[in-house]
């Protein structure tokens, strides 16, 4: 079974430029998460989707970040414009269904963003 | 108090010893608990999940959960240098919208 797929793996951009990350979750997983991870810290949730609905985007900086999951499968996270402080690893994860009693979450390889 | 707390480490143990990693959480009604391993430059990898009080064993790994004390631990028996990584504790927390909340991780170093 294929895992969570993310692209690109690495991205270097100059500040004020736009950037987009793509994620394809594990087949059959209804819940998709985008996290941000800074060095030495645990992942921090940006947004959670249940199918195509964003059920929690309270931690997403909406002035510059946006996300979509149009058909309830793959998802895109965008930053426009990027700032120096956005340099981090952006992780996508998926899980079968948060209502499941045994809900396990699996991560993709992540995208390492460097903003110059 | 942070939702999920872990000793930041680094925790150093000799090869073959038992490594003990600890995690405390603040949400009394949390029901689901997870341990992830993260190698440097890699993404987190799920190694254990536990939902009921007591011990759960999987190979060299044992997760221990005590909901009354709001405490979950991970024991690694016969530690190997390949176990050197950061171990992240995660909890599905009602107070955080039923989201996964991660601790800061404990860095483990197994010395040959």
In short:
With 116 residues, chain A is mostly beta strands.
3D architecture notes:
The complex is a heterodimer of chains A (116) and B (112). With 116 residues, chain A is mainly beta. Chain A has strands at residues 5-7, 10-13, 19-24, 31-37, 44-50, 53-56, 65-68, 75-79, 88-95, 106-107, 111-115. Helices cover 0% and strands 47% of the residues of chain A. In chain A, a hairpin with a 2-residue loop joins strand 5 and strand 6. The termini of chain A are far apart. Chain B is mainly beta. In chain B, strand 9 (85-93) and strand 10 form a beta hairpin. At the A-B interface, strand 5, strand 9 and strand 10 of A face strand 4, strand 5, strand 9 and strand 10 of B.
List keywords for this structure.
heterodimer; A: 116 residues; mainly beta; seven-stranded mixed beta sheet; 11 strands; 0% helix; B: 112 residues; six-stranded mixed beta sheet; five-stranded antiparallel beta sheet
Task: Give the rounded overall mean pLDDT of chain B.
Answer: 93
Question: What structural class results from the helix and strand content of chain A?
Answer: mainly beta
Low-confidence stretches of chain A: none
Helix fraction bin of chain B: under 10%
**Backbone shape of chain B:** globular
User: What is the count of helical runs of chain B?
Assistant: 0
Based on helices, strands and strand pairing, what is the structural class of chain B?
A: mainly beta
């Amino acid at each position: 079974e294929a895992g969570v797929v993310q692209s690109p793996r690495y991205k270097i951009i100059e500040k004020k430029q736009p950037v987009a990350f793509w994620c394809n979750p594990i087949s059959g997983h209804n819940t998709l998460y985008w996290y941000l991870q800074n060095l030495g810290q645990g992942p921090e949730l940006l947004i959670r989707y249940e199918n195509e609905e964003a059920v929690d985007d309270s931690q997403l900086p909406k002035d510059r970040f946006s996300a979509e999951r149009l058909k309830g499968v793959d998802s895109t996270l965008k930053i426009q414009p990027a700032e120096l402080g956005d340099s981090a690893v952006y992780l996508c994860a998926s899980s079968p269904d948060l209502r499941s009693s045994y809900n396990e979450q699996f991560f993709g390889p992540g995208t390492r963003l460097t903003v110059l | 108090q942070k939702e999920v707390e872990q000793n930041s480490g680094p925790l150093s143990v000799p090869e073959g010893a038992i490594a003990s990693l600890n995690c405390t959480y603040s949400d009394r009604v949390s029901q689901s608990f997870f341990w992830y391993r993260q190698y440097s430059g890699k993404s987190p990898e799920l190694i254990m999940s536990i939902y009921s009080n007591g011990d759960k064993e999987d190979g060299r790994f044992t997760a221990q959960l005590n909901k009354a004390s709001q405490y979950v631990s991970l024991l690694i028996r016969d530690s190997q240098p390949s176990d050197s990584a950061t171990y992240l504790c995660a909890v599905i927390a009602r107070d955080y919208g039923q989201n996964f909340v991660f601790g800061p991780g404990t860095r483990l170093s197994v010395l040959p």
